Amino acid sequence: MKDNTITSAVIVGAGIFGVSTGVQLARRGIRVIMLNEGPPAGGASGRSLSWLNSSRMRSEPYHRLRMAGIDRYRTLSARFPDADWLRFEGGLTWDADDASNGIDAAYRHEVSLGYDARHLSAGEVAAITPGVDTSTITPQGAIFNPGEGWVDLPSLIGLLLKEFAALGGTLVTDQGAAKIVVEGGRAVGAETAAGNSFTADAVVLATGPAVPKMVAEAGETIGDATPVALLVQTKPLAHPLRAVLNTPRVAVRPAPGGTFSLDADWAADEGLRLREDGGHDIDRTIVEALLAEASKVMEGNPKLKIASIGVGSKPIPGDGEPVVGALRAIPGYHVAFSHSGATLGLIIGELLAHEVATGSEHPMLATFRPERFASR
């Protein structure tokens, strides 16, 4: 059924939030133009670990939102059961053997929420999930979450863009960065660096780590804790690991074609040096150290080889919680900015499109409004 509140929308950003929102609006019969500086999925969505989860501890509204996000992926997985870009084969997590170890507390918290969790000793892991070098699991044990999974966001974005085009949506790329056009106190469209203007009834800003700066240009504030992140993709390897691993020194996520995605905060902190032009030099010895850490936690300690290295900003709001919805001070201006873009990708698009199309606020987004930063 069509919504009559608006008839057109411009979306700036073709990562998972922008594309997901665009498809949802197009499904409602709204004319959508999507603008992206470069190719789709060329930013944070293209270098995301993309672990689908709601593990450990966070606010209850955020947990509910993440669980709804996982639910939408379950529905998608049922449509594409043989997809090599979306799998639900669990997640295994353990902490360092020191005072920071929070595995027991995390397990008890997850159980209290009804989140499927099993607290395993190292000796129990092999019978539950394959491919792990269990000698690296610390004495406090590990948590296995069988309902978790992973998605390859570029593959998903490609799938959604095919539907977007079939629904009449327009994708405009490679015209440089776009800026939101505000006239008479209202967002009325966007203009690309190439000088092309696009007008619409509503504008959605979904440019990942650039959102806080772009919003600031309109006089609004969104707290920003965005770091620089490093994601290493390996060459294909025959290996039995199926679960996503989150360990003290490395995260390892299976990927399409027998490859693996690896990341760790320490590797980004130690392995990247900012250049004067804003780019980063990569210390290859640190990258090799990251591959070695991944090998240690994988059964058989395989030799991992680099296929690609992704470097760039990882969107994280100042308080760690999503920032989604309208800027109340500027009618017609909506934003989507969050960590865990993969887990939230489908549900944020759905709920934000509901708000844009109907003009009514969705209760699941009540605590994630942009204006919460204005009073800080």
TrEMBL record:
UniProtKB keywords: Membrane, Oxidoreductase, Plasmid, Transmembrane, Transmembrane helix
One family name in Pfam for this protein: DAO
Any one Gene Ontology cellular component term annotated for this protein: cytoplasm
Annotated GO MF terms: oxidoreductase activity
Family annotation (InterPro entries): FAD-dep_OxRdtase, FAD/NAD-bd_sf
Transmembrane segments: 6-26
Domain FAD dependent oxidoreductase: 9-354
Keyword Manganese: no
The protein, known as: FAD dependent oxidoreductase
